[in-house]
Structures are given as C-alpha cells and as structure tokens.
Amino acid sequence: MYSFIEENKKKLEKYINEIRDNSNIEPLLAEAMHYSLKDGKAIRASLLIEVVTQMIKDFDENSLFNAALAIEMIHAYSLIHDDLPAIDNDDFRRGKPTLHKKFGEDVAIVSGDALGGYAFYYLAKTDYSYETRIKLIKKLAEAAGPEGMIYGQIMDMRYPIDSIEELNKMHYLKTGRMIVLPIEFALIIAGVEEGSKKYNDFIQYGKNIGIAFQAKDDLLDVIGTEEKVGKKLNKDEAQNKRTYIHFWGVEKTQKKIDEMIDEAISFIKPYNIPSLENLANFLRVRDY
Asked: How much is the pTM?
C-alpha cells in the first residue's frame, strides 16, 4: 500500500549518494551530510514527487528530485540541530547514533549549516524557469526560516504552552510548515494558481497531515517502542513538555489523528490521487 514511499526513497538515494561522492566537499563533511540524509522516511520528498507526477505528464525528473532533496536537506539539518545537547540532547535518531554522537558536536553543527545552505543551491540549479526557481527559493526560506520552522523551534524551547491553540501553532510552524512546503512546491511546479480552489484544497490537506504527523509523534513517544521509533521514548514527560497527550490523553489523541486524516483525504478526494490518500493513511497507522 505504501510501496511508492519506498520507491521514492530508492530513487532519492542516487541524489543523496552524489553528495557523499562530491569531491568538492571536504570528505568528513560529505560523510556526515550523507549520514544524516540516508535513512530518512522521505515523507516530504514523497509528497512533492507524488503531486507533481500526478499533475504533470512530462515532468523533469532530475529537477524534481533535486527540489525534493533540497527539502530533505532542510529537514535533516533541523534534526541535527534539534538533537544537539543544547536543545533536545538525543543520543539516537532512526535507530542509529545521532550525528553529534557519531561525528562530534563541532562536525554536527557545521554539517547542519552546510545542509541548510546547500538546499538553496540545489533549488537554484534545477532546470525550472527563472520565475519558478525564485518562487521555490522564496517558499523554502519562508517555511524554514524565522517565519516558519525556526519560529516554531523557539516556541518549543522557550514558550509556556498552556492551550491546545498554542500547541497547534507551535507544531504547525515547527513541523507542519515543512510538510505543507513540498505541496506548495508541487503546485508551483505544476502551475496551479495560488488562491484557487485546487490550490487551497491541497494546502488544507497538507496542514491536516502536518498536525496529525506531530500528534502521532507525541502518541508514539508514549505507546511506541524504542526499537521501532528508533530513539529514546518518554522524553516529553521527562522534560515536562506539553503535548497532545497532555491535553487529550492517548485514546482521544488517536481519535483526533483519525479525524484530521479523514478530513485531509476529503480535501483531495475530487482530484483522484490514491497515493496521497495512502500516504495520509500511512501517517495514521505508522509505528515509527
């Protein structure tokens, strides 16, 4: 049912390996960048790839996968920095040592910086029109920067979260914004007019699965297994962080996830893209 995600990951590997094999990148840095990218779920890349391939018959595969990798680079850099002792202090990610545990904090910080910058290079070198590339670069900067992901990170680190509304805002900015981004990329590449019903329906799909994704993370932190999830569990409670479990409890959180996923699917149902429905359902039942 979810084989398309694995297929996209396999195709993306070729582009990830090009970073490891790039002689213009210092070897240790190339190895660290490759390490941080190679075992991801590729959910964000798959969102971009699936929407574009369903909307455009003769798409430019090389440009599409470079754009997908740019998004994965930003995601990887954010995880590298989140895992550092100064922020979340995690020892494991995806079932293997976090980057700073394997390569040291200094290399981890610099590798995150390198990925954050290189993402824009990968977008700029696509063969899309000048106007399209500028739009993609602007969207990436908005989503990943101080108006998006980093805003959410500051909220997570320093804000008291006292309501579900504040929690939703923080998670949309920190996590959801980077899940909506690949859909925005796809709509721009496909030439869908911003503000049109089609555009808004796909964005609403992305917003719903973005919040559902984070709520599932909160749930897995409580009911998952370290073997499956690939990192230490029950950290939110240990750090006294407010989560969806805090506000809703376990059963209601799963019910809310199901409601958000069902609503997400209803937004894209008229456009007949089964893979996006499957991806949403994967997020509903995932155990890692």
From this structure: 0.94
Amino acid at 259: E
Question: 57-89 burial, b if ≥16 CB within 10 A, otherwise e?
Answer: eeeeeebbbbbbbbbbbbbbbbbbbbbbeeebe
Q: What is the pLDDT of residues 24-55, one digit of tens each?
A: 999 999 999 999 999 999 999 999 999 999 99
DSSP secondary structure, 41-59, as one string: --HHHHHHHHHHHHH-SS-
Using DSSP, state whether 2 is helix, strand or coil.
Answer: coil
Tokens of 117: 């910058």
Q: What superfamily in CATH does domain 3-285 come from?
A: Farnesyl Diphosphate Synthase (1.10.600.10)
CA distance 31 to 250: 39
Sign of CA dihedral 133, 182, 53, 10: positive
Q: Please classify residue 164 by burial: count the beta carbons closer than 10 Å to its beta carbon, then call 0-12 exposed, 13-18 middle and 19+ buried.
A: middle
Cα atoms in the Cβ-side hemisphere of radius 13 Å centred on 126: 30
Per-domain boundaries in the chain? 3-285
How far is the C-alpha of 80 from the C-alpha of 261, rounded, in Å?
28
**Which of 188, 97, 180 minimizes the C-alpha distance to 135?**
188
